[in-house]
Write a structure and sequence with these properties.
Number of strands: 7
Shape: globular
Order of helices and strands: EEEEEEE
Mean pLDDT: 82
Low-confidence stretches: none
Distance between the termini: 22 Å
Number of helices: 0
Structural class: mainly beta
Radius of gyration: 14 Å
Largest sheet: 5 strands, antiparallel
Strand order of the largest sheet: 3-4-5-6-7
Length: about 80
């Protein structure tokens, strides 16, 4: 997602597949979550952030304008997992 689906010069996803999720629709409040192509989109401290939830506290968080990708694995003991 960070490189629009490209890996080592080849597209793993169709070109443009990730573009709609990186843009926030006008008029949405920052705390509104948008679900699109298995990712959720929110705004955190003025940045559009995408996240995917896994089982038992596994997360992938992507902040496009910061080129930030974070993967975390944990055992929260609370199911289902919740993104703060």
């Amino acid at each position: 997602y960070r490189r629009d689906g490209m890996w080592e010069g080849q597209y793993l996803l169709p070109s443009g597949w990730t573009a709609p999720m990186k843009v926030r629709r006008d008029g949405l409040p920052d705390d509104a979550q948008v679900w699109f192509r298995a990712w959720r989109q929110v705004v955190v401290d003025g940045h559009v952030a995408l996240f995917a939830l896994g089982w038992g506290g596994q997360y992938v968080v992507f902040v496009p304008d910061l080129e930030l990708v974070v993967a975390a694995g944990s055992d929260t003991g609370q199911l289902p997992s919740r993104f703060p």
